[in-house]
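Pasting as-is:
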Amino acid sequence: MQDWVRDEVKNQVMGNTRLNKRLSNILSNLSSDPKGSIPCANKSWAETFAAYRFIENNKVSFDSI
């Protein structure tokens, strides 16, 4: 994980540590190609699927991020 990602999310409270970690992974992956799509930014189908599941999670909202 990149240092700036760790700094950005260190005080993040999404409701549980799993969501906090997923947010960190998504930010790190998307930062490698900000113009790219979610599937292109992730290294595997599992990571892509996890990113979409994160976005669709009822606990995740614009305000919570």
